[in-house]
Design a protein that fits this description.
heterodimer; A: about 325 residues; alpha+beta; Immunoglobulin-like; 3-stranded mixed β-sheet; about 30% helix; about 30% strand; B: about 700 residues; 434 Repressor (Amino-terminal Domain); 4 domains; 20 helices; about 25% strand
């Protein structure tokens, strides 16, 4: 979103680099630090039993981007760790290294974090006699405690389990169901019921019309559930002009709202969706199912399955 | 100072200049022919009285004979010799070797530098090279043309102009450029701490290899060097639009008792006719050799002649200077001096960054500078610095030379050292039971920036550290850190017998351009079946090892059923879809004196026949929310829209963009505007303004 500030800011991008990551007493391999997509993956083969991750960071601006006449006073740079789920914020002052960059070490306390932690940095200065103005910010990094690899691809977590198992009391009431979507956590989870005879084997088998039809059906359930959950998260903000939330909720809304209300901006579409939900519009659920069909790949999967079945029956005749 | 000339070579030269045979001298002095032969070959030296007699016979004074004081060959006695056409009527329209290479500056730089590297004299010091691009105009040009006796070759060059043939066209362009602009580009290539063009004028040796032979890949430096002065020397002549190259060499070992300023010129033209006479094409600039029908041979020049030919060299530093007259970049990429300089520097850096890299307390193998000058201005000499032009790879190699490599990469400048095996195939001839069977090459891998020109490239080389292979590794980059890899094979990895054997194998597998390791005729002839396969396996193993060193772990959920994999991806972008609603494309604004925001808004509109009807909403942003609403004091349409009475905007149907301007109402500001962050959104207009 484009914004205007009433004072001069830094020209050009402000970049944050994660130079090195120490996890307790060892150094994270560089493969687990993705500088392109700005992701650090902390779930390594050494397990999750660590106490502290220390990230050495460096913040740079384009040469000449800082204008002494505007930004000469009280320049400072602060790195911030922020996690939505735990609502924890850690700010660390970085120090000029003499070559135009600010460097420092940001400590991430394992006990205070759960999943995806955002790391960003802000440059501040006294501008027009107002102290501590942000004159530049970096794009955020994701420090992901659960990721095994630092790739941008986020996916619904899949858990294949017996819904009647003793250690899964929360699933007992769904024990007769083939699958169950839990859209509460981050990431959301799709449970497949191992006790539902043939289901897991079918999905793992080679392509067949039945398998693809089932997969598409799972997909529609997953995406319509995620959409409604995301809509709920947006409604919780309580604002009369609700903003699109962050995290996977925002991702799902931005992806599906254009199919629910094609000619509305996301903000308008969100407001409209919340209004319809509130009013209990009977047609609204149909719109959601319609929009869920695209990410679930319903049309190609079902279409392919039907053609395959028809061919099979014609050749069998 | 020039060292004292041995008597024998001196006498031989005097006889040759006078076209006097040993027999004639023997008759004049009344001695046997064997005695004269013994003097000339240096097996015996005449007594003083005989020396006086020799002086008389040669028409010299006594002192000249005793101290063998001799002015070098007079410039006046140096002349052009053009090879007559074959009597059988055969015609050659260019140097066949030149057609084997793309004659552009990067190929020239590669071939010339490689030759110098392979001719290194003192292995404890680098070969020093200097490339000088020198544009001469006006009187400087005419003075130079006089020195090379241009009037003597001009008819030949002109006769070789031929718009229908490749070489003839290039010559025509070169002549036109020189005449119309009165300007000529000389490219001088010097090497120091190199062997120089030693050996006889005609028999096997470095001199003959460069000046006399074609398609003769003389392998002069034993097992570890490539064939220096092989086919690649043709690129020197191919770089000259006029086919003209002059040479001055300081020899590392005496020839005819001398070392300094051995000079010759060679003109490589296609077959042509001058004044009704047919000429084969090539010509030489030198001292007429009476024993070979006045063919031109090299001469020992004085310093003035060398300077007038733009080929003066410091004394006592063996090596060779080539002067390419009318230099051009045949690819047409580099047309002027700065562009030619840049292309030279870039290709020198790409091909020889490793040879120029220092580490482990040892000097580099090679140092190169590039100079551009115009007429008599001095020009600036610029060193080709591998740490500037190939910083990532030079860093990797330096870490290896300094013993600073690591096992696992944990930082952006770490260099991992890995080992890649090459199974050594047996040689067909001279196979020995104790021959090494495996070579362990060194593979260096280090991270680089994603947008690096050489990201995910592997560069491979052997002992002379010239880039043989430089290519992108297919399959890298999908789930790897951006990296660069350097494969040090053969003697570049070490000096054990297996390293030497690998060096020999890999050199045998290089084509004349030395730019690949693959099946060659030489390889098939020298090694048992399967040698090319072993090399291919080796290169593949290096690729795999490099990628593995920087590969990220596979994403979790390996047991995800295939049909669910795409369905469960959360952020498989709906991106790329064009938006179906109007968006703010650009915001521009400032605070007015009265504390109000003045903002210009550019809107991108999806094209549609119905007018978009929207409300522009101004807000002061707050962290983690939708912002605080602010009222407009005024709204003015600038293009493709109209402002309605209720403060909404109606956009012109079918337009794709629109602009309006607004000023905020300070009385509606929830905070002082000077402390605000303003944002503008477009909302649906529903039943009038809010």
């Amino acid at each position: 979103m484009k914004r205007l500030v009433p004072y001069p800011t830094v020209a050009g991008p402000v970049e944050l680099a994660v130079v090195r990551v120490r996890v307790d007493d060892w150094t994270l391999p560089v493969q687990l630090v993705n500088t392109t997509d700005r992701i650090v993956a902390l779930h390594t083969d050494r397990g999750t039993d660590w106490n502290e991750a220390r990230l050495t960071v460096a913040v740079t601006t384009a040469p000449g981007a800082l204008r002494p006449e505007h930004h000469g006073r009280d320049q400072a740079c602060t790195a911030v760790l922020r996690e939505r789920a735990t609502n924890s914020v850690t700010a660390v002052r970085l120090h000029p290294d003499g070559s135009g960059a600010w460097t420092g070490e940001v400590s991430l306390d394992h006990t205070r974090h759960a999943g995806r932690v955002l790391l960003e940095a802000h440059l501040t200065a006294t501008v027009d006699d107002v102290a501590g103005r942000i004159i530049g910010s970096t794009e955020p990094w994701n420090v992901d405690l659960e990721a095994r690899t630092p790739t941008a691809v986020r996916t619904v977590r899949l858990v294949q389990v017996d819904f009647a198992a003793d250690d899964r009391p929360e699933l007992h009431r769904f024990r007769a169901d083939p699958w169950h979507v839990d859209a509460w956590g981050d990431p959301p989870v799709l449970y497949l019921n191992k006790a539902f005879e043939g289901l897991v084997d079918l999905l793992h088998a080679d392509a067949s019309p039945t398998r693809d039809t089932v997969a598409a059906q799972v997909g529609v359930d997953v995406w319509s559930t995620l959409f409604l959950a995301a809509l709920g998260a947006a409604a919780e903000s309580g604002d009369d002009e609700p903003a699109v939330p962050g995290g996977w909720h925002g991702t799902v809304l931005k992806r599906m709202l254009p199919d629910v209300f094609p000619d509305l901006s996301p903000a308008d579409a969100l407001a409209e969706a919340l209004k319809r939900r509130r009013e209990g519009d009977a047609g609204f659920h149909a719109l959601v199912l319609h929009a869920a069909g695209r990410p679930a790949r319903l049309n190609p999967m079902l279409g392919g399955a039907i053609r395959a079945l028809r061919r099979a029956s014609e050749s069998g005749r | 100072m020039e060292e004292a000339d041995d008597f024998g070579p001196w006498l031989g030269r005097q006889l040759r200049r006078r076209s006097m045979s040993q027999n004639e001298l023997a008759l004049t002095l009344d001695v046997t022919r064997a005695a004269v032969s013994a003097w000339v070959t240096g097996r015996a030296e005449p007594r003083p009285d005989k020396k006086r007699a020799i002086a008389a016979a040669l028409g010299l004074d006594e002192v000249a004979v005793t101290v063998r004081e001799e002015t070098p060959t007079q410039a006046a006695s140096v002349t052009w010799y053009h090879r007559p056409a074959h009597v059988d009527g055969g015609r050659e329209f260019g140097n066949p070797a030149a057609f084997a290479f793309d004659a552009d500056l990067s190929v020239l730089a590669r071939e010339a530098t490689q030759n110098s590297l392979d001719e290194r004299l003192d292995n404890s010091r680098p070969v020093r090279m200097r490339y000088t691009l020198h544009q001469i105009t006006g009187k400087h040009l005419f003075r130079f043309l006089d020195a090379i006796q241009w009037s003597e070759i001009e008819p030949h060059v002109q006769a070789a102009e031929d718009p229908k043939r490749k070489t003839g066209r290039v010559i025509a362009d070169g002549l036109r450029e020189m005449r119309e602009n009165s300007s000529l580009i000389l490219l001088r290539i010097d090497d120091f701490n190199a062997n120089g063009l030693t050996g006889s004028d005609y028999d096997d040796g470095r001199f003959a290899a460069v000046v006399r032979r074609q398609l003769d890949s003389s392998k002069s430096s034993g097992d570890t060097a490539g064939g220096s002065y092989g086919l690649g020397k043709a690129t020197l002549w191919a770089t000259s639009r006029l086919g003209l190259v002059l040479i001055n060499s300081t020899l590392s070992e005496t020839h005819e008792g001398r070392r300094e300023r051995r000079m010759i010129g060679r003109l490589d033209l296609p077959w042509h006719v001058v004044d009704g006479r047919e000429w084969a094409g090539p010509g030489w600039f030198g001292e007429p050799d009476r024993t070979r029908g006045d063919a031109a041979r090299s001469w020992w020049a004085d310093t003035e002649t060398a300077a007038s030919l733009h080929l003066d060299r410091p004394e006592g530093e063996p090596g060779t200077s080539f002067l390419i007259v009318g230099a051009h970049d045949a690819s047409g990429d580099a047309q002027d001096l700065p562009a030619m300089r840049d292309k030279l520097v870039r290709s020198l850096a790409d091909d020889f960054w490793a040879a120029m890299t220092t580490g482990g307390g040892r000097p580099p193998l090679l140092e190169v500078t590039v100079v551009t000058r115009r007429d008599d201005e001095e020009g600036v000499e610029e060193r080709v610095d591998p740490h500037v032009h190939a910083p990532v790879r030079a860093r990797a190699l330096r870490a290896f030379l300094n013993g600073e490599t690591v096992d696992a990469i944990t930082g952006p400048t770490d260099v991992a050292r890995l080992s890649v095996s090459l199974v050594l195939p047996a040689r067909k001839a001279g196979a020995r039971g104790d021959a090494p069977t495996r070579h362990d090459a060194v593979l260096l891998v280090t991270p680089c920036a994603d947008d690096d020109r050489h990201a995910n490239h592997i560069t491979a080389m052997r002992g002379n550290r010239m880039t043989v292979v430089d290519r992108r590794i297919g399959g890298a980059g999908v789930n790897t850190v951006a990296f660069q890899a350097v494969l040090l094979a053969g003697v570049a990895a070490g000096d054990a017998s297996a390293d030497l054997a690998a060096e020999r194998l890999l050199r045998t597998s290089e084509p004349p351009e030395h730019n690949a390791w693959r099946r060659t005729d030489d390889l098939t002839a020298s090694y048992v079946r399967g040698a090319a396969t072993r090399i291919a396996e080796f290169l593949k193993a290096a690729d795999v090892a490099a990628v593995t060193a920087v590969a990220r772990p596979e994403p979790g959920g390996g047991d995800m059923p295939a049909p669910l994999r795409d369905i469960l991806r959360l952020d498989a972008a709906g991106a790329g879809r064009t938006t179906g609603y109007p968006t703010v494309k650009d915001l521009d604004g400032h605070l007015q004196e009265d504390g109000a925001w003045r903002i210009r808004v550019e809107v991108r509109l999806p094209e549609r026949p119905d007018a978009w009807h929207l409300v522009p909403k101004l807000r002061f942003a707050v962290r983690g929310g939708g912002g605080l609403p602010v009222e407009w004091a005024t709204l003015v349409a600038r293009s493709n829209c109209t402002v309605e009475g209720d403060g909404s905007l109606t956009f012109t149907p079918l337009s794709r963009s629109a602009v309006f301007e607004g000023v905020s109402d300070p009385t509606s500001h929830p905070i002082e505007a000077a402390l605000s962050v303003a944002q503008v959104d477009l909302a649906r207009a529903v039943g009038g303004a809010r």
